[in-house]
Each structure stands twice: as structure tokens, then as C-alpha cells.
Amino acid sequence: MTYQLDPAERRSRPLTAPSRRPFASPHFGTLPLGDPTGGADGIRWREQVDGKQLYPRVVVDRDVSIRMSDGVILKATVVRPANRFGQTVLTPYPAIININPYNRAAIDFIDQALHAPVLGKALHTASRSVDASGTALEGLTNLTKTLSGGVFDVFGINRNLVRSGYVQVVVDVRGTGSSHGRWEILGLREQQDSVEIIDWVSEQEWCDGTVGLAGWSYSAINSLQAADKRPPQLKAVFAVEGCDDIVRDIYITGGMPSAFIPVWLSAVNALKWVPNPSHVLRDILRGDALRWAIDRIKSPATEIPSLLWGFLTARDPRIFDDPYFDVRDPVVSRIEAPTFTVGAWHDLFGRSATGVYERLQMEPGRKQMIVGDGYHLDVGSGFGGPAAPPRLDVLERAWFDRWLKGHRNGIEYYGPVTMLQQGGVWTSGQSFPRPGVEPTRLYLSPESSSTADHAVHDGSLGPRPAREVSSLHIRPDGRGLRSRDMTQVTAGATMVLGPDWFRDARFQERGGLSFTTPPVTAATPISGAMNLRLNVATTAHEAIWAVTVNDVAPDGTSTVLTNGALSASNRALDRSKSVYASDGSLLSAHHYLSRKRKLPVPADEPIRIDVDLVPTDAVLQPGHRLRVDIYAASTPRYLTVVPDLIKARGRHQRLVLDPEHPSYLTLLAGDGLSFALEQVGV
């Protein structure tokens, strides 16, 4: 790893060692390290999933009750293999558990639709064959291709997996779906439920005593939570787009709430009021429906009143980094079970895409990471295609076969770090950041780059600070509604509206300050975290700063590679948790984001802020440029609580380019970037 912690923290927190190939012995049939498809092994994994299974059918019991230690009943679906007559197989098998809050009724609907004799086949065929790349419908097909990428098998009922000799258990989280109790949103009682579910499942006659955890999004997070408790029955985890820092990823990024949270909370709260039609009559006869209704009435809209109160007054602790969140973040460093993680550069949980892998304290091979160039809803889109990773259902089966059944199928030799390099292709290697990148500093200068006349200001990005003091003024606008920020906060949904929402940032740049390098002359990798140090001022007592770093093509298309934001009052830096490069440069700023650590923002007085940017991996192709865009806001990706909005009212923000207090981007890049700057004498 290139990363280092602050010197004061080095003795108390071990650094992550560089990733190594985990096993010295050769494995028959595997292509050399660097093949993201899995080579010959990948072909075998796919053939095992798509070919004839051990059992021809499954039996689905959608009305299973699991009693927790406090008496609360959780509802579950149990899927077991069956013979051709539909009789349940009595042989015990490993169990795969999925615990999520999205109501098993919805999961049942997806399962039945995807396995309907005519409809299911038509949906899968369309997902594989329809590709509108390069057209106005490209965003739509990016979403529809998730079906052929296999993520719905990880999220819901995976019949093929069960037919190969597994049992699957899908559980409604406490207080959601048909389960009783109060929804705690990943709280301590819910985490205890996960451990008790594992205990219950492992003791059933249909389970051989070994368990795996799988899930997408929320169920990936609670899989990581359960794994950090180290239950002895747990042998492997397959987590798609999980998270280990809810605060900085999505809840209050840069000290600002995200529009995603109230929308998501409303959706889950609405779904928890929907009874499961597969057993609603039995629930009424047993009295379960009454208990369920009473629990819903006690908490009709979990967390929404407190969220609204916090947004209006800033007096609720959940508007800040608070112990409320500390108990909800998985302690990834405690996990011992082999863990496969999947993420995306523009996922809701972008920082966790690589962070979970880095914090897993186990050798590569027992931990694996795949990161694609997409969002939350389109994860797995394109998987299984030429030069791409195998489908997610294929990888899930291979992972569990290896660690739950002991099959020597080569999955531990895959990767271990597989990434879709933005601007490039899928690669598979040994570490993140990738080898060959070094700390690089690029200064913001007011001199024109002659590439962004559409922006509020067209500046340059180069190896030297500005020659004299200048102030660049900027005001908030609404162009963030039509941007990659908007698509990220909607989990990818708005990509169907066209390339301005997921590829070309020039519309949003009309309201921003742009700083652009000369074109590179050779392919130049960028890999890892980034930090943007700015010298800024405002006429008010609060300011909002949103930042993107972009790849600018020769035709002018500006594609966001990564982003970040910070409210000026939250600029206090926790140096013990910040990340530094080998030369001491700040690469990732960790802000306190707490009420007591807020700092005053003086009017019209320049202050220094460090905006941490989501780690990424990209390549600038010859003729491309790197650009930093700076905005006074990006709504609804970053919202401002009402008290801070009052402090910032009528504000005029400005970036102060001062040679004595320079503004600059620190990143890890190949030497092609420095060479390009030297060649043009910037």
C-alpha cells in the first residue's frame, strides 16, 4: 500500500501491507494473474451454474417463524432442494442466509417473475441481448443488464444455488416485512438477531452446521456486522455494495445530509406496512397479525420524525457523527471468515468499495474485491461479458463452494483486486492502489486552459501555484439536478434520462470553476484516494463546497471520476484518522463532523479546507486531460440543514488563489501526468 496513517497514529494502528499472491503453489487451468474473467476456472464456474444441477427442483416454505431471545418473532423463507417429484431432500446442506428489510413479499414477487415459464425466460433473454450503448437509451440498458449480471440471485432467492446442494434462508429484519418488533436500522439488537439467526439455522436438521452470509446493500452491511461477531458456524461472506462508514459514505457526507436517506427511509417504512400475502390468513388465525399491527403502530415511521427534526433544528445527534452511527458500522478488521466484496466507483457507498477490502485483516485470496464503474442499482451490469468478471451468481456459487464445501475450484486465485479502470478496461491485480502510481501535486491557477469557456471560470491545473493573488467568485445554482451527483444520490435511477446525468458534466460545469491540465501524451493511471486543499472565503458564516475530478476527452466531454464535498464549519481535521502518502502528503482527510468540533466561519476571511474525494481508479488516455470542478453547492446530493442554511443565506463564495496559501490537488498518478506538464512548460 502507498497509504500511511498520520505519524502520531502509526504505533496504535497497523498499516495494511501490500497485497500479495496468496498461494505459491500453481493451480491447474488458471490463466496468469491479471485475467479479470477468471480464465479457465471462470468458464468452469459458469458451466457449473448454467449446467445440470444436483437436484431438479426446490421447495419453498414462505411461512417460517424464528423466535429471538427477547421473544420477538422474525419471519423467514426457507428454500430447500427437492427431487423431480417435488419431495424435499432430507440430506443436510450448508445454509446461505440473507437478512434484509425490503419485505419478503417483494422478494417473492421478483422470484416468481424471474422463474415464470415464459416471462422469466423473456426477461433474461432481453437483459442479455439488448444493448443500447452509444444511444440515448444507454442508461436504461445499463440498468436492465443488471438482471443478466446475477445480482438478483444474490439479493433474493437463488434457486440454482439451492438445487446445487444448499439451503437458503431469507429473513425479514426485525420491524420490517412480516417480522415483529421495532425496526432499529442496523442497531445492536438487530445485530444480535443476526447472530441468533445463524445459531438457529445451524441447529436445524436440514443444515449441516455451516453457514454463509450473502446480500446486496443493506443485507451486505448486516452480513459484515454479523461477521465481525465471529460466530463459529459462519464460514464465508459474499457482500455486494456494503458499507463500513455510513456517516461519510451517505448519511452526512462532508457534514451535509443526503437526499437519498429520507427517500430510502420512506420506502422501507412504507414496505413494512405491507403484509405478506403468502401467509397473511394464517397470521390472522394465529394472532400474529395483531402483534405485527401493534408493533407497526408503535413505530409507524421509524426515524423519519427525528430526521426531520434534525434537519430543521440541527439538534438531533443523528445530523452529526455520533455514537448512534459508531455501533452501526461493521468492525471489518475483526472479520475472520473469507469475504468477497463487490462495489462501484459511483455507488452510494463509494468510499467503502475499496475501504472494506483494505480493512479486512486476512491474506488476499481469502478476501476478494471487485469494483465496477457504475452506481448502486446497476451493480453487475455487463458482468459475464467478454473481458469482464463472471456473473455475480457465478462468483457467489464458486465462493461458497470453496469455503463451505471445500471444493478446490480456484476461486482463491481469482483477483484478488479486480477493477474496471475508468477510461480503460477491466483489470485484475494484486493491490489497490495499483502499482506504478506516486504522490503528485497539481496546483490551481487562474490562467486559462482554453478548454472550459462554458464554465464560470476556466483555469489551469499544473505543477506551480498561482503567481499572484486573485479571487474567483461563485454562487450556488440548481445544475446539480442534472449531473452525475444526481445519479449517484438516486442510486443510478436518473441515468435513464441521458448522458448529462451519468457521463458528460459540461452542463453542470456552467455553474462551476474549472481547472484543467494540458493533455497527457501517454496512458496515465490514477489510483487511490485524493485530497483537494482549497483557500476559500464567503460573505456569510457558512459555505458549501462540492468538488469533482474529471477526465476530459479531446472532444470536450468531461466525465466525473470522483467527487467530494465539505461544509466550511466542518473543516476540523482528525489527523490520527487521516491518510497520508509515503512522502507525507495528505491523501484522505478525515473530518470530525461532530457538533462540538464545528468551527466558526468568519465572513470575508480566507480559510483553508481539505475536501476528501472518494478513492478511485482510472486511466487518462493520450490526448485526455484531468480537470477539477468546484461548485458552491450540488443539490440534492448534498443538502444543508436549516440552521446552516440560515447562516449561509445570500452568500457569495470565492476561491482565493494565493501563492502564499496555494490551493492544490494531491493524488496518486503515473509519471505521464508530470511529463505532460513539463513538456508544455506549465
TrEMBL record:
Q: What UniProt keywords apply to this chain's record, in alphabetical order?
A: Hydrolase
Q: What SMART domains does the record tag this protein with? A: PepX_C
Residue ranges of the region described as Disordered: 1-41, 445-467
Domain Xaa-Pro dipeptidyl-peptidase C-terminal: residue ranges = 397-666
Q: Tell me which domain of life the UniProt entry assigns to the organism this sequence originates from.
A: Bacteria
Q: Which molecular-function annotation in GO is an example for this chain?
A: hydrolase activity
Q: Which InterPro entries match?
A: AB_hydrolase_fold (IPR029058), CocE/Ser_esterase (IPR005674), Galactose-bd-like_sf (IPR008979), Xaa-Pro-like_dom (IPR000383), Xaa-Pro_dipept_C (IPR013736), Xaa-Pro_dipeptidyl-ppase/CocE (IPR050585)
Annotated Pfam families: Peptidase_S15, PepX_C
PANTHER family associated with the record: COCE_NOND FAMILY, PUTATIVE (AFU_ORTHOLOGUE AFUA_7G00600)-RELATED, PEPTIDASE S9 PROLYL OLIGOPEPTIDASE
Its protein name is Hydrolase
**What organism, scientifically named, is this protein from?**
Gordonia paraffinivorans NBRC 108238
